[in-house]
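A quick aside before the break. I want you to see a complete sequence-to-structure record at least once, exactly as it would be stored in a machine-readable document. Don't worry about memorizing anything.
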Amino acid sequence: MTLQPLMRVKTTRDGVASRRTFLCQVGVGAAGLGCLGLKEILSLNAQQLQQQHKHVILLFMQGGPSQFETFDPKPGTTNGGPTTAISTAASGIQIAQGWTNVASNMRDIALIRSMTNREGAHPRAVYQLHTGYVPAGGVRFPHIGSTVAHEIAPRTVDLPPFVSVGGGLGVIGSGFLSNQFAPFAVVDPNRMPSNSQLPGGISNPHFASRLNLMKTLEQDFAQAGNQVSVQQHQNIYTSAAQLVRSPNLQAFDLSQETAATRDRYGRDGFGQGCLLARRLVESGVTFVEVTLNGWDTHQNNFTRTTQLAGQADPGFGALITDLRQRGLLANTLVVLMGEFGRTPRINGNTGRDHFPAAFNLAIAGCGIQGGRVVGSTTASGSGIANRPVSVPDLFCTFCHALGINPRKENVSPQGRPIKIVDGGNYVQELF
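That is the input. The structure line, written in tokens, reads:
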């Protein structure tokens, strides 16, 4: 039996507030921990308690990465083009050239080579791969990061529960969920968040007085029937004020890392974004998305994917290594994916076009068994040969790894109950 009951224990950033508080909150639930006795529970340190909080790091390859040039190469075939395959640390698994760091970590990484979908337009596919739903008029579905934050983020962490790094994909937002679960956008991981310092000459007590004054001034407006709008407004200011005054704001400061570590991740925006994601997870952030743009390779596919892999591979590989070495991979789900794949046929511009019928992704951590492949494509790469995995299947897999009920219904402002995932089943072979 796992330590799942401890995920709800109220903690400070330094761990459990006090032994008495810990005992009061765990109560008779300690008996449900199975093999752990009360003495062992009390001996857990702050880091071990923090590790029971589950996290997600989504590495989104914006534009639709070619499956042939990532994790399902077809060397020696017409459709495979000049891309060769390299061996990995997992016996029998080969991936495309240029992914050497991922290859060395393949014992911790699983591949799904049989993702299949119908959405071949970027806006619709990006939306679906971030919400689990196709766009529908009248309903703003929440980003998966907002949903995860809503379901499992500890309410005691003083950093945003969902951080979006370097992409702009956060515009999908929290949908019909509260704006307290909206993404906190970090445009450049090499810089501290904008406006993250108190104005000059303003002390913490003075700042608190200003916040209290704002709440007082808004009371009349709230009492006139605008409670929801006022509450949402105050949620934003409360979260911002909490962040500005938090000692954990230093999690955004990459200058605290050694030059060697920063080099290992790659000095480009994506690599540094992966390093920032690791730091944020260590500080209690539940969901981090890091975006790498440029995968829409209608032209010069092979040159461009080589360049892009040169950015994605070091960051992804270093992230998996660090999470494993720090004991965080078991509770951190890491996913590298795009919105669809690319055509088997190479077009006249030495490029590949949109192809949602068959694409792939890499997934690790949070109970995922590495060193395995789910599904396969045909020899030409033109279709799924076995074990098709749909978008709902994928989202159910996320939920299973995180301990979320995918059939739970959240209610939209129109009073419509909407399931976290509508249909699908989790991919059992991954666990």
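Two observations worth writing down. The first helix runs from residue 19 to 26. The radius of gyration is 22 Å. We'll return to this after the break.
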